[in-house]
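Quick one - inputs below.
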Amino acid sequence: MGEFELIARHFTRPAPAPEAVVLGVGDDCALLRPTPGHLLAISTDMLVEGRHFFAGAEPEALGHKALAVNLSDLAAMGARPLGFTLALALPAADEAWLAAFARGLFALADAHACPLVGGDTTRGPLNLCITVFGERRPGQALRRNAARAGDELWLSGRTGEARLALALRRGEAWARGELAAVADRMDRPTPRLALGQALAATPGVHAALDVSDGLAGDIGHILEASGVGAEIEADALPVAPALQALDRPHRLDCLLAGGDDYELLFTADPAAHAAVRAAGAQTGVAVTRIGRITAAPGLRVLDAQRQAVPLRTRGFDHFAAD
Amino acid sequence: MGEFELIARHFTRPAPAPEAVVLGVGDDCALLRPTPGHLLAISTDMLVEGRHFFAGAEPEALGHKALAVNLSDLAAMGARPLGFTLALALPAADEAWLAAFARGLFALADAHACPLVGGDTTRGPLNLCITVFGERRPGQALRRNAARAGDELWLSGRTGEARLALALRRGEAWARGELAAVADRMDRPTPRLALGQALAATPGVHAALDVSDGLAGDIGHILEASGVGAEIEADALPVAPALQALDRPHRLDCLLAGGDDYELLFTADPAAHAAVRAAGAQTGVAVTRIGRITAAPGLRVLDAQRQAVPLRTRGFDHFAAD
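Output:
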């Protein structure tokens, strides 16, 4: 089977395209018509075998995850998805793999009305690069540089389960529990799109990002961009049942430096507290106040006695010595 | 050096961003403001080491080429560039390599006022994935499905030199000539952006694509999408001086099935002949009438006696048996 036939079989779909897609897969470019007056939000993520996922990872989950991590960036900006492109390097044209990958990819794409509009396939070490497009009214995008001293610090959902799943798969000695209870949190993250859009429309919500490389590391991007600091109350962090069995240091590692969480971390004026809770309730996502933004720079993680909790690891860095 | 420092050093630039870029590198998403009423054109291409370029390829040229092949897709649509994202997998964080790569990349980006607006870097087998965004007035995009029987068939520039450069590098027995005379045509292709935009604004220009996988193969995309056929006059194809020394079969192979040409192949009403010539003259790109579109399906390549020229190879297919 040739490249063009391969593309046609798995990535061309008869489904009617949303109105914004003037031209989809199959020409030199896709053509989109954004809503007049809106800004276009764009994000790109590359997933490499052996780095972002294990060799032999289940292709349906991989299709889901490759798109989910990109949609999560749109969610963090409060943007509504318009479409995405997929560039795919494959070691071989494996029909069964492609069919399963496309199934996982399109199930998530359909759930968010985010069609595939273009792409590229080639032979090479397995590599998935998705670029996603969304839109947002000007002035409503949630940016990293908008946190203010005095803001409450909020987290959607829970962090740490994906890190525990990784540890169980790797057989790390400290890990406890059933992989089945946490595997989906690693393999099938849920982009918080509805919540992100609701927050962007909530007055008083200031800065946001999606937590992908660990909470304690990623928050640094907000602090740096906004010129502020933060306190996180370690005991305020929501803890999944699967993490209860861990000793406290490893539990905190998972919560604060796990990575692969794809939850929204955001700041809001305390006066918006009830509105933030309402946005969470309206979109079916738990939101938890986990600390506050301070004028003093730096991040402090405090226990119930307001003593500093030592952080043993920071966010994941692809080029740190390892 | 860590991932974030690496990004900051080589891919964050102080240059003032064009007005369309509301937010560039450094947040969850980039934010663009397309011109009101315009359509957004999007294309993505992935370049893999050992597949699209030799291991050890000169990084400055690679930076140029990775963006050029994407801009070529915008050119084929007649779109004006707005910006691009870069996702990059690197085996290691090699400072000198990155500096040279960024130099080549940004030189071309600056020449076309097409800023880097976002990206992703990770460790992995060398892989470059660029997604490019442009815009075009509705109704002026050059699509593949718009060729009409009776149209003249046109080619910008010349094909075949990149294929000869590849053959000389590989030491293929039939190749003749100096690599230096053709290397840039393989390493530093010129996206025909100004010509594409001029053609899109020329009444009577119908279909277009950029020739990347060989003229005789790529034309099939226009023929299939438009439900037409074509005749190419072999002796009308422009021949670079470097190709004159080749025997006729290999010369025709280079011209018709070379690949990596990044020239525009387009069709236009014969009444637009002078306007097409003017668009070429105005943008400084040679344009040559190389045949015509026919109602009868299929592609025929004819010699001066209107005898069929046998085609030994077709366009490049990344998953064909090889």
